[in-house]
Amino acid sequence: MHSIRVTAPAPPGMHPDLPANMQMFAQLLVNGNIIQQTGAVDTEEQSLEAVTWKMKFDCDLPVNIPNFQIAIIRKLGSVRILGSVSLTWDEAFSFGQVHKPYKMALTKVNNDGPSLNMTVAFSVVPVPQNDYSDIPADPSNGIHVFSMIKQMLQETQQGKPLDLHQLCALHTNVLLLTQNSRVRGKLANFLGDICFKQWEMAREAATLDQAVQAYGDAIRDGLTDAGSLQDLSVALFQRIEKCGDTGDIDRCIAVMEESVQLTSDGDSLKSARLSNLANCLLRRYQNYGALEDLDRCITLGRHAIKCSVDGDLDQAANLNNLGTALDVRYDKLGDLADLNDSISMRMETIQLTPDGHPDRPTRLANLAASLLSRADHLNDLEDLNQAVVLGEQAVNLTPENRPTRAFLLSNLGSSLMSRFDQLGNVDDLSRAVVARREAVRVTPAGNPSRPTRLSSLATSLMEQFAQCAQVDDLNESVALRTEVVFLTPDGHPDKAGWLANLGDSLEKRFEFFGDLDDLHKSLALIEDAVNLTPDGHPSKAERLSNLGSSLLIWYEKLGDLEDLNRSITVHTAAVGLTPDTHVAKPFHMNNLGASLTRRYENTKNIEDLTQSVMLKQKLLELIPESHLKRGLMLSNLGGSLLELFKDTGDSDHLSQAVTVNMKALQLISDGHSEKPAILINLGNCLFEKFEKLQDEQAGHEAISMWSQAACSETGSIHVRFHAASIWAQYARKTQDPSFMKAYEVAIGMLPELAWIGLSIRDRHLHIMQASELVRNGARAAIVSGNPELAVEWLEQGRSVIWSQLLNLRTPVDDLKEKHPQLASKFLDLSVQLEKSGGRKMDLSETDIRLQSDADLAHRNAHERRKLLDEIRTLKGFENFLMPKKFHQLLAAAQGGPVVLLNSAEESCDALILLSGINEVIHVPLNFQPINMGDITADMGSSNARLNGIREGEKSREDRLLAVLSDIWKGIVQPVFQALAITKPTKSDLARLWWYPTGSLAFLPIHAAGLYGAEETFGSKVSDYVISSYTPSLSALIIGFEHASKPRRSTQLLAVSQPIATGQVYIPGTRTELKYIQQAAHGKIRVVSLDETTATPDRVMAEMRNCSWAHFACHGVQDAGSPIESALLLANDSRLTLAQIFQLSLQNADLAFLSACQTATGSKYLPEESVHLAAGLLFAGYRGVIATMWTIMDNDAPQVAKDVYDNLLGTSPPDSTRAAEALHFAVQRMREGPGGKSLLEWVPYIHVGV
């Protein structure tokens, strides 16, 4: 027998015995014994008319077996026979001889079973005979089956585990008995009892599935008495409760209904059956939210109590169940009568439950839960304390090994958490965390309650984080809630809640760290939770409110008013769905008020602000005086009242704003993560009072509030940095003596603001707000007579992300020598963090994993921070990787003067470092900073290397002439005078490095001078010095350090790419490559890559091998995402700044970027040098030739030729002469025949050593 094909006339799911996704297998039975079995298979073919399963058998049938059966069995959790056929050996032989398949209809095991057809393929071959002589007698007769069931029942009652395969085989033999007989039904029911008891012993879901099948087969065979129906309903309910299979719920209720109807009122089992039906209706309500199910559940529960005998244990169970249903209806409707009724029921339950009864601890815990709800409703501390006492009693009465202990610990944790919310006693919070952690520990994997307990622990940890700001609590909360989501299958009624909770934790983590991945995932998860929550569900309002809060944060980050409007819409719906008596009502109102205030700030619609104030005033009537969150609510009201004062000028609003914020501050505990935000709000109100009412004391108090917020050890870094910023701003404005301290605190926060655990993209986003503060701080230090400190601060606030990358790559040789294990761990974490910095956020999907790349980066950043703190406690390592002091930064000037140009609010200054002089030369500048982001765009409106003259070039050149003249007079001449650079020269020019900040970073300082009719020798920078730029002092120091190290022989990578989609054709790149090869011939090896071979991978590989690199191609600056700025390579591929970040080139020396805008940077990140030239510098190159804007394709080859002819004219080649080589190449462009225009030669610059 080779194969079997089974066909059903209708697709799976059309018949209850053929569910979707089922598998099918076949068994060969001889004398009722299983001789061979196929593997289970999925459907092979499917159409609207039929579906087919094909099973491979390859089984020999010896001649001495006259009769056999083929059974067809379904598998989906449990297994069940669908039908069989009986055949003789002669029939099989005859079909095998003619190689003709045998087709027949299966004999059904039930009259209402599916109609199945089977085709069997036979063949006749001579094989060694297996005579099956040891096959026992036919077990499929009723007496034998009954005997087997009786034996298994006895073994089960003795606690002996049975093999599931035995139970499945016995089930098959039962169904092979005479069809649809009551005897067969009774045997199936007995088998159901065996399977159910086996499930109770081992809790294996497949055994419970088999019990459901057996009980169902008993009923199909006519065993429809109330008891048999009850057996099936109990098994179905257990599958719903313990395995989360909600697809059974309607069937379960229907079977229970029938069982109850068949049970007379005088029957002693009536009460239990009514109670079971009530429980199932409660479960369906919890799944789908139909209030009629809940009302009927309570009605049936009361009927069950009436039917029970007063004082017996069944009555206690029924009272307990009714109490649960009343609690649920209270949660939905907020009717205190339901809650009081529940408490009465539960108290009576306790009275009926004797000491020592195994259910007494659970019932004590249930009473505690009901008292807890009433305490929340009435703000009744007596109920709350009683709930904690009862919860503790329940735990203490329960042995360590009792399965209910986890439930009791979890309930105790809830009571402690609620008391913490009321009283703010951190000891209660700590005890709640301990109880819930222990509940998780004693809940085994696979237990259906484990997700709930994990989630409860996560909630406590979130609150502990809010109180103590321990990031480990926050990260553990995210990890726990992620695990909960993974443990819960799609379609589970709790899935929406778990998604919402995870979204909340990710949102809080975003607020603390600023990782946009967290924010994106949070919003997507909360939206999914809302969509999965049906209307009428008790949690719908809460989830809508959470969504509104997420949309508000999204608006604050991206500025899309549509997000804000939608936030208000969903918040309004949440408030409307929540009765005034519900404990969540004030929180929903507060959230709506926050969104309305934000919209007022955008649109200045006073109605939004007035409504916000009214909501926040009303919610204070709903929230208890002692509630932990009352302080936050008061502070939010104060913020709206302040805005109302600014709009109306009514001083009463300002007085109220100050008053409520002071009350808020009194209510918030020290160390609470929200305290800095409340301090800021109060400071804002007090400073407004100072400015409008000339109240000097209020001004001093405002600065005190901001300074406390900034110096807080808890709270979001973004909130604390904001506090430090406004502290510094207004302290300087009012000449408060704390202004220098304010700048010191703020600048010290920069590494935390651009936290190394974030992606580089996110770090750039957060550091953007710091640029002006750092420059104003430097100006303050200068005014205070401490220009050396100004230099230190400018360096700390300049190229922060680049400095972090250098920090990650810093050798730790001393640490390796003295503490090798610490050094190894530190370097490993640094490498991992460097790799994770380049991760991207994919907005197209929400990637939720047990440990995402962001989670891993966060963990590594925290571990590295702790390790860094540990290293700094070691003798000799106190300043390990600390920011450099001024005396260390002076090393940047070893090759020539370094001129730091600081552009602050009210002035510009030059700070000059000179080798051998241990102080700063300060030069005040009479220069107005220009928005050079616009000038750069004007000078080169295209990213492309251009072939010809651009339209409007004359007007651009006129403007550039004026800019260069202003720079010469306002910056260069005062600097040269301070340096005593007075004599122009055409040879032996000195080197000078420019270090511009703010909008000065976009100025072509190297080209400053007087041109045209005013031009004379000595009227421009290039007549005195050779200019270079540097993104930081540290970059120069590292470049000089590398100069002293031995290097391998010079090799040059030359990349030519004239073609790129969307860009003009630049044939000059090929000429450029030819010139380079000619200049290098016989001197250094050149590795040439062109438009077919210059792929990013190949280019990066050669960059590791070659110390020099030349790129003749298109370059693009991405204004929206600067780290995606790129060189365009072969086949429209890109070598991006993000990829360059990842390179660490030990042999790199010189790079020449003969492409457009490779040193332009971003006007939003002027201090960060986010351009390709800086990227190559930090990747390891000591010097880079680059361009500030568009260059001409016919100029580039000649510039490259002149540079390389100069550099390669000495042996060995010296890359430190690159700036000089470029200087003379540009001079030749400017002064040669038909001299080039300013627009053509000014863009070329040198960066680095």
UniProtKB/TrEMBL annotation:
Pfam families xref list: CHAT (PF12770)
Q: Which Gene3D superfamilies match?
A: Tetratricopeptide repeat domain
UniProt xrefs under InterPro entries: CHAT_dom, TPR-like_helical_dom_sf
Domain CHAT: from-to ranges: 963-1248
Protein name as annotated: CHAT domain-containing protein
Record the organism: Roridomyces roridus
The organism's lineage is:
Eukaryota, Fungi, Dikarya, Basidiomycota, Agaricomycotina
